[in-house]
Amino acid sequence: MTPTIGVAVTFWRARYTPGVTGTDSTQRSAAAGPARALGRLRGATSGALVMLIIQFALGIGVNLYITPTEGGVSEAFTNGPLLALHAVLGVLLILAAIDLLVRAILVRLRVVIAVSAVGLLAVLAAAGNGIAFLRDGQNGSSMGMAIAGCVALLCYVVCLRVLCLPERARD
User: Fold this and answer.
1) DSSP codes of every residue in the chain
2) Which residue, 27, 56, 95, 103, has fewest beta-carbon neighbours within 10 Å?
3) For residue range 61-82, what is the model confidence (pLDDT) as tens digits?
4) Residue of 66, 61, 68 lying closest to 136 (CA atoms)
5) Does residue 51 sit within a domain?
6) In a domain, 45, yes or no
7) For position 30, what pLDDT does the model report?
8) So what's the pLDDT on residue 73?
């Protein structure tokens, strides 16, 4: 086989999609929508993972260096910048978890929808334990935050893994 024929066959295989009719630009634009949505979902999942890791590190700092005075939610913004940053990032994580679930629903990947829903519940559980920790200062609330955060982290790692699989193996 000459190199010219091999290049032509490779070029033809790359452009041909079985069962799809239309021009090449039509095929590319039809495939770009779902591919773009999957790419955005992967990016949002990666962003949530980074936010969770930062949140976990901030939580360790809060646990080591800040003692709650049983003041409730308002204490999050009056007890130093570390706790305020931890609280603000927690709210942003809730919004990011909702965004991920909505994006997963729009892409219609059942596994990612289910795992994103569990991730959202874990983030909400961590927030609830955080509010309880500010109210009572109990170690159990702090442990609940950490465990819920780790569950959310695991959920989003699974989402990212599923989103990086070939299309045939996703659902």
Assistant:
1) --HHHHHHHHHHHHH--TT--S-HHHHHHHHHHHHHHHHHHHHHHHHHHHHHHHHHHHHHHHHHH----S--GGGGGTS-HHHHHHHHHHHHHHHHHHHHHHHHHHHT-HHHHHHHHHHHHHHHHHHHHHHHHHHH--HHHHHHHHHHHHHHHHHHHHHHHHHTS-GGGT-
2) 95
3) 988 888 777 667 777 777 788 8
4) 68
5) yes
6) yes
7) 42
8) 73
Domain assignment present for 117: yes
Radius of gyration, CA atoms only, the chain: 22
Q: Rounded to an integer, what distance in angstroms lies between the CA atom of residue 148 and that of residue 42?
A: 22
Mean pLDDT of 130-152: 90
Output the pLDDT for position 25. 46
| Residue 141 within a domain | yes
Domain count, the chain: 1
Whole domain around residue 109: which residue ranges?
A: 40-169
Q: pLDDT tens digits, residue range 71-125?
A: 677 777 777 888 889 999 999 999 999 999 999 999 888 999 999 999 999 999 9
